[in-house]
């Protein structure tokens, strides 16, 4: 697995932001967070979706973390182009880029009394790899041939040495992922040990030394977190956080409007839009690293023809969809990297305008006989993707493509894409690790099953391999720009828009920091 399955953005920590007076430890009222979907697991080594790894990240520390920058409305947000030390005090990289030495603090312990040291870090990273789930893919940065990590050594309690089989300019970001969280070896050994596959106990328990402890957990209902008195870093802003999992949009809206929820995540854009201008709430909108797109798999007719693929990009009124479906909380572009990604180049990724005349000319030049029948799969109950499908059904018909909208259950929808059976589909997607090399490793590479659009340009593979091995940020940028130009020229799919993540805050919230996964250290009232 390689993608983040759940489509929502979240938050982390690094610098407190001030919307008013600072929250304080020991506050009488718990900080309430409402989320529209519950996590599938709390195990950082097994989680795939943002709800999984987002919540789990609060119970653990990692070697590195994302940096921070100014955000909208007096908030801050994460900076994916700036990776900083977290549990590691100092990081040394060898000249060839293959050996990383992490110096760790001494004396830190898990609640069990077990040391949080180099031995525990080695155990944890190797556990993610052994289990064989999403965590291993994140830790390896999607590089398996040969595996990215050659060896992990605990030289002494405060020194961890990781050697790679090849240089990788993104390795420090890999170590910032929740999958690289340092877990308590004594708890793991007492509850199933380390083996391939799911650990049932860890699906609903925590075993970390992070900023929060898991006081109670009711799957699909509620999680209660309390500040960890033994946390090595600054104390969290909130001493108690109650996370409610509510899949009813009207209920989420009511709780947000009434002020019963301090932070609301996953509210539909239409519902959030209704709160604009209300004194009881503050709407925060951040650029996100995921996007809505229409898949046109190269292995399926009529998408085997490049001009047909290009034609539908001009026959899709993305600007109108952005305005009316996403309420303007979106961004137009055409390229492989979303605008929020560090590698994005606006000059290369200019949005394609709605132009039926050009689309018709491209269809004629393609030599493909019309009319063409296309089945477009969408997930049942997803209002946004149903609206997009309905719009393109009308506009594509004008260039000779008849679209049949096929609503599938969540399982059938995912299977149709993962098994490469869909002729066309609409989905929201984004990388688990926010870096072009990781993204392209599943989104453009030839012959990989995770490449849902079946994009295959050998030149991209060659340039990608060079970029991933380069230690030079300047060289990598040039290579990723070259890949973007090739990608755009081949029109592999329809990029409808880059999504923007909408968070609803109550008026009592004083501190909020956005990231694509949630970390509650600076959330407070």
Termini gap: 37 Å
> Spans of 5+ residues with little confidence (pLDDT < 50)?
1-27
**What average pLDDT do the residues reach?**
92
Shape: globular
Beta-strand percentage? 15-25%
Q: Can you give the helix content as a percent range?
A: 25-40%
Gyration radius (Cα, Å) is 23 Å
What summary fits the major beta sheet?
Answer: 11 strands, mixed
How many β-strand stretches? 18
Contiguous helical run count: 15
**Class based on secondary structure composition and strand pairing:** alpha/beta
Q: What would you say this structure looks like, in words?
A:
The structure is a single chain. The protein has about 525 residues and is of the alpha/beta class. About 25% of the residues lie in helices and about 25% in strands. It is built from 15 helices and 18 strands. It has helices at about 50-55, 120-130, 135-140, 170-175, 185-190, 250-260, 270-275, 305-315, 320-325, 355-365, 385-395, 410-420, 435-445, 460-470, 475-490, and strands spanning about 30-35, 65-70, 75-85, 90-95, 100-105, 150-155, 160-165, 210-220, 220-225, 240-245, 265, 280-295, 330, 370-380, 400-410, 425-430, 495-505, 515. The strands form three sheets. Strands 1, 8, 9, 10, 11, 12, 13, 14, 15, 16 and 17 form an eleven-stranded mixed beta sheet that branches. Strands 4-5-7-6 form a four-stranded antiparallel beta sheet, with helices on one face. Helix 8 packs antiparallel against helix 10 (about 355-365). The radius of gyration is 23 Å and the shape is globular. The protein starts with about 30 loop residues before the first strand and ends in an 11-residue tail after the last strand.
């Amino acid at each position: 697995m390689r993608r983040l399955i759940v489509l929502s953005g979240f938050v982390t920590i690094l610098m407190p932001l001030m919307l008013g007076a600072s929250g304080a430890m020991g506050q009488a009222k718990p900080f309430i967070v409402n989320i529209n979907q519950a996590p599938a697991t709390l195990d950082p080594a097994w989680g795939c979706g943002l709800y999984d790894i987002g919540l789990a990240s609060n119970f653990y520390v990692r070697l590195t973390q994302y940096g921070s920058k100014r955000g909208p409305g007096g908030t801050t947000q994460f900076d994916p182009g700036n990776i900083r030390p977290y549990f590691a005090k100092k990081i040394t990289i060898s000249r060839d880029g293959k050996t990383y030495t992490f110096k760790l603090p001494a004396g830190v312990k898990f609640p069990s009394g077990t040391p949080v040291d180099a031995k525990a870090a080695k155990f944890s990273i190797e556990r993610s790899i052994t289990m064989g789930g999403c965590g291993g893919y994140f830790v390896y940065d999607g590089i398996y041939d040969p595996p990215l990590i050659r060896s992990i050594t605990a030289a002494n309690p405060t020194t961890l040495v990781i050697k790679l089989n090849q240089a990788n300019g993104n390795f420090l970001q890999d170590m910032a992922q929740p999958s690289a969280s340092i877990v308590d070896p004594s708890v793991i050994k007492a509850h199933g040990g380390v083996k391939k596959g799911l650990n049932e106990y860890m699906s609903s328990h925590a075993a970390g030394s992070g900023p929060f402890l898991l006081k109670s957990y009711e799957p699909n209902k509620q999680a209660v977190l309390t500040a960890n008195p033994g946390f090595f870093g600054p104390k969290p802003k909130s001493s108690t956080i109650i996370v409610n999992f509510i899949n009813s949009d009207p209920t989420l809206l009511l709780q947000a409007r009434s002020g019963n929820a301090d932070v609301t995540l996953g509210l539909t854009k239409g519902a959030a839009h209704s709160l604009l201008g209300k004194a009881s709430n503050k709407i925060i909108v951040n650029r996100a690293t995921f996007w809505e797109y229409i898949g046109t798999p190269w292995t399926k007719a009529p998408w085997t023809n490049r001009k047909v693929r290009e034609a539908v990009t001009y026959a899709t009124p993305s600007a109108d969809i952005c305005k009316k479906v996403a309420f303007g909380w979106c961004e137009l572009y055409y390229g492989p990297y979303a605008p929020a990604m560090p590698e994005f180049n606006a000059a290369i990724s200019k949005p394609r305008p709605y132009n039926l005349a050009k689309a018709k000319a491209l269809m004629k030049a393609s030599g493909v006989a019309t009319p063409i029948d296309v089945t477009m799969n969408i997930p049942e109950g997803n209002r946004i993707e149903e609206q997009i499908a309905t719009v393109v059904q009308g506009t594509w018909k004008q260039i000779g493509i008849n679209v049949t909208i096929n609503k599938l259950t969540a399982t059938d929808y995912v299977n149709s894409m993962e098994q490469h059976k869909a002729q066309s589909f609409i989905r929201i997607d984004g990388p688990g690790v926010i870096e072009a090399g990781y993204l392209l490793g599943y989104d453009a590479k030839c012959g990989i099953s995770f490449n849902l659009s079946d994009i295959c340009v050998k030149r991209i593979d060659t340039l990608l391999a060079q970029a991933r091995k380069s230690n030079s940020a300047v060289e990598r940028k040039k290579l990723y720009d070259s890949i973007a130009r090739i990608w755009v020229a081949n029109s592999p799919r329809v990029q409808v828009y880059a999504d923007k993540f909408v968070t609803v805050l109550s008026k009592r919230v004083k501190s909020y920091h956005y990231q694509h996964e949630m970390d509650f250290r600076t959330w407070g009232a």
